[in-house]
Amino acid sequence: MTKNSSDKSLRMERDNPLLILIDGSSYLYRAFHAMPPLTNSQGQATGAIYGVINMLRTLIKEYGPDYIAVVFDAKGKTFRDELFEQYKANRPPMPDELRSQIEPLHAVVRAMGLPCLVEEGVEADDVIGTLALQAAADGIHTVISTGDKDMAQLVNSHITLINTMTNKTLDRAGVIEKFGLPPEQIIDYLALIGDTSDNIPGIPGVGPKTAVKWFTQYGSLDEIINQADTIKGKIGEKFRANMAQLPLSRQLATIKLDVPLTVTPETLQPQSADNDALRELYQRLEFKRWLEELLQQQDETTDEIADPQDGALERNYETILDEAALDRWIERLKHAELFAFDTETTSLDYIDAEIVGVSFAIETGEAAYVPLAHDYVEAPAQLDRSAVLQRLRPLLEDESKKKVGQNLKYDSNVLLNHGIQLRGIAFDTMLESYVLNSTASRHDMDSLALKYLGKTTIHFEDVAGKGAKQVTFNQVPIEVAAPYAAEDADITLQLHQTLWPKIKNDTGLARLFNEIELPLLPILAQMEHHGVLIDAPMLEQQSNELSERMQQIEQQAFATAEQEFNLSSPKQIQEILFEKQKLPVIKKTPKGQPSTAEEVLQELALDYPLPVFTPRTIRR
């Protein structure tokens, strides 16, 4: 029968081994048309790759197969083109944005440790049919993952179809339910009705209902041909006029089951993933969540910090608690051509923020944190904040001492709260990221480190806690705060070393950064510090327009959910998305609940567009 969910019995308490054969070409096309036009920051199309890989990950997790292969069509003509010159002639040329995704997709599949099969002269269907028949003979149950109706001819007691796009499976009963005919009659059925996508001729005017009616009445295609003179009306005339082409149509619709292959079902065991190759591919394609998962898995097995370009990189982070160490670092900063600078504060609101500590980095992997105002119970003695800032003032206010930071506009305003005018801002990694890819949704340090360095960073929540239990940075123990703060400066320097060459080598981007974006930074900082005049009536008008639009979106969300709910309530969103809408849970909270975090909703929106938006936040 046709089922609305995956057949769990195939992976639970199964007696026979399980082989999954994925029709990669079928899903490549379907993912291309189903997914939004995703691209990475270099403009390379990635939507179809994402869709297919997402399907593979879900399928493997669901079934846990003993054997598996992803099968793609090869370039060039097949034996069917030799049989019929017009075979698939109606199909438009493959779009360039789809063609460009084929090789990267093959590379990801192989890096995942999955056999990737491409056989010249035949189609993916023929390779799948041959392997499925061999597997059945060896007592291996086969699940064919495809959206191609032609595959229904292969279904038997050992072979089942699954369409992961619709999450439905087809066994023998399911084929009968869907087509009105058993699997052994699907070839003749396809020959009779033809196939416009493959340009299989068939009989003009004969559709699925007529075909099923005739099979029910006459029993087989051969008998329909024998009884052709008894078919009345215009449809009978069309049948008799075109039945000479039925043998060709039957041959074109028949999946070849004897393709010479160098593999057998038993050789198609999944292998260990090539994590280095996957990391490079996910980083290049900018599949953020999968890259983060991969890096976290690697972190669980090694204490080293891996740099995809330079190999293992040791970190040397220093916590400055005495004058001698401060003197040493100030001397180094004085002679540095460029240093990364960052502040840790009591608040993200620069108007009220006070400095808790400062960090520096001059060389990659080497940084220092100066705690100045950690005031939790039993906090160790720290250098006096006012005295340290006064000693740093000449460096920070010196135009000739070049600095780089991540969102230095914020740090500039915070320093103004302490009477220091930050000068010598030579680079800002947030601006560098924006200039390189202004359409990217995130330019925060954590996202940039993952995207450009392939590194997971210490998040603010990791040191300060989350939600109601989150503390301000002055309450974070110094031994916890220091690695986080020093890493901020170190990663900032590494990001600059990665991003700036990309900008520097492009005259247009370099001019945009040097003549527009960077000079604007101190101007905006002053505007934020001193304030600006606003047109109150116009602001009120815009507010009303936004409010009206938000109400419209809210009503769209209610209509989709078929009930009203609180869009600001994570619990109610969980109920709507995961209980009522049955969307897949791709990430959970620490308490085991389905996550409704921004990045999760953004990813779900790719496959399940909903008229719901979430606010964006930026971490410095």
What does this structure look like?
It contains 25 helices and 15 strands. With 620 residues, the protein is an alpha/beta fold. It folds into 4 domains: 1-179 and 256-286, Rossmann fold; 180-255, DNA polymerase, domain 1; 308-530, Ribonuclease H-like superfamily/Ribonuclease H (Nucleotidyltransferase, domain 5), CATH 3.30.420; 548-607, Up-down Bundle (Taq DNA Polymerase, Chain T, domain 4), CATH 1.20.1060.10. The strands form 3 sheets. Strands 1-7-6-5-2-3-4 form a 7-stranded mixed sheet. Strands 10-13-12-11-14-15 form a 6-stranded mixed sheet, sandwiched between helices. It is elongated. The two termini are 54 Å apart.
Largest sheet: 7 strands, mixed
Give unreliable regions as ranges.
1-13, 302-312, 611-620
Give the number of domains: 4
Architecture per CATH nomenclature, i.e. the level-2 architecture of the largest domain? 2-Layer Sandwich
Per DSSP E runs of 2 or more residues, the count of β-strands stands at 15
Shape: elongated
Radius of gyration: 31 Å
Count of DSSP-assigned helices? 25
The percentage of residues in β strands lies in: 5-15%
The structure class reads alpha/beta
**Through-space gap between termini:** 54 Å
Here the CATH topology of the largest domain equals: Nucleotidyltransferase, domain 5
Please estimate the helix content: 40-55%
**The top level CATH class name of the largest domain:** Alpha Beta
